[in-house]
Amino acid sequence: MRAPVTDLPLVFEQANVIAGGVTILDHVSLTLSAGPPTVLIGPNGAGKTTLLRVAMGLTPLSSGRITWNGQERSGSGSDSASKARRAIVFQRPAMLRRSAAANIDYALAGVSAPRAQRIDELLALVGLSGLGSRPARRLSGGEQQRLALARALARDPAILFLDEPTASLDPAATKAIEDIVRAVAARGVKVVMSTHDLGQAKRLAGDVVLLHRGRLAEHGPTPAFFDTPRSDEARQFIAGELLV
Amino acid sequence: MAGETSAFQLVLAGDPGLYAIVWLSLVVSLSAVACAALIGVPFGAWLALTRFPGREGIIVVLNALMGLPPVVAGLAIYLLLSRSGPLGSFGLLFTPQAMVIAQTLLVTPIIAALARQTVEDLWAEYRDELAALDVRPFRRVATLVWDARFSLVTALLAGFGRAAAEVGAIIIVGGNIDGFTRTMTTAIALETSKGDLPLAIGLGMVLMAIVIAINALAWGARRAGEHYAG
Question: Would the ipTM clear 0.90, i.e. be above it?
Answer without folding.
Answer: no
